[in-house]
Amino acid sequence: MQNYKLFKNSKPVIAIDGTCISGKGTLAKNIAHQLNFDHLDTGSLYRYLAYLISEKKIDEKNTQELKDNFDFDEIKKVDLRTEKITKLSSVIASKKIIRDFLIDIQRNFADYPPSGIGSVIDGRDIGTVVIPLAEIKFFIDANIYVRTKRRQHDLSEKGEVSEYNQVLKQIVERDNRDKNRKLSPLLMHKDALLIDTSELSKIDTLKLAVKLIDRSGKLKLINR
Question: Considering the domain boundaries, does residue 27 fall inside one?
Answer without folding.
Answer: yes
